[in-house]
């Protein structure tokens, strides 16, 4: 990355950390198939199981509860199925209840038919309506199958953090299963899934300094497991067939060992405070979405009435700053964010997301504010 550029899009993906890069390069020389019994295969298997232990240790669970996938989307598709097994017994889920602001990999309902999906609303701050969830779960007809609930720990656009502990209690009382997307949460705040609540968790390497193309789903136990989506040679104990990508998985494991420190958290909070105080000083028409809710310390999602996010994004890119502009469709044009719609906002011009990381400095924030001020002045709104 050029020194003249300032990357402020860590929620989209993160730069590869030195530890992850070294593990990736080293593992390229371990060419054996981890399912083979010879020495080369055993060497690959050793790297695979080391990474599994690294993931488990970071999340405070057992290594045999970790199933590697190609990323969070595949993990979600595997978990979001009506068909599970508990030992040799079939366990059926008749409906999945999904938060209204979920990432599309959860929001589209996985392998559940549309008529077996139900969405739970959020308030103006993006927080799940727990009372609505309680009511819907209370009305759930268990004779047709158990309820499944899928909720993100933190939203990738707004950074809003959900009360997962409370949600987990509600789901447990209903006799259901809770799937928690911790993709955005894990790189910014400490996670202990034993105390967090939930039955299954979804993670992706490239959000925490690891490579793209690898992720995992992690269970809190080994009894209840989903029906496999990818069938074949039975790798990953039959839950995800296909020869494991040892270099990517080894790199993922190395990235998982680098959890955020107290200093990292304090730094993120200082950056966010500097940014948001500065933004409010630039315009009294500026809105920061989710500002009054618990949020990730690295995320700020904002808009100014009458200022097109696409224009801002292009102007910032030309000035050397990489940010996200709302939710982009396939043509690359900015459209209304589904997350903001669910929160009750009408933002046709889109919004800008700034997401910082370990390489972001206070000077980067000051330079960003200066560049953004020029864009506002030139727009004459």
Q: What does this entry look like structurally?
A:
The protein has 381 residues and is of the alpha/beta class. It has two domains: 130 residues, Aspartate Aminotransferase, domain 1 (Alpha-Beta Complex); 238 residues, Type I PLP-dependent aspartate aminotransferase-like (Major domain) (Aspartate Aminotransferase, domain 2, 3-Layer(aba) Sandwich). The strands form four sheets. Strands 2, 3, 4, 5, 6, 7, 8, 9 and 10 form a nine-stranded mixed sheet that branches. A four-stranded antiparallel sheet has the order 11-12-17-14, with helices on one face. α4 links the parallel β4 and β5. α5 packs parallel to α6.
Please summarize the sheet with the most strands.
9 strands, mixed
Q: What is the structural class? A: alpha/beta
CATH superfamily heading of the largest domain: Type I PLP-dependent aspartate aminotransferase-like (Major domain)
General shape: globular
- What top-tier CATH class of the largest domain fits best? Alpha Beta
Helix share of residues? 25-40%
Total helical elements: 12
Helix-strand pattern? EHHEHEEHEHEHEHEEEHHEEHEEEEHEH
User: How far apart are the first and last residues' alpha carbons, in Å?
Assistant: 33 Å
**Number of β-strand runs:** 17
Domain Aminotransferase class V: 7-368
Cofactor: pyridoxal 5'-phosphate
Function: Catalyzes the removal of elemental sulfur atoms from cysteine to produce alanine. Seems to participate in the biosynthesis of the nitrogenase metalloclusters by providing the inorganic sulfur required for the Fe-S core formation.
GO molecular function: cysteine desulfurase activity; iron-sulfur cluster binding; metal ion binding
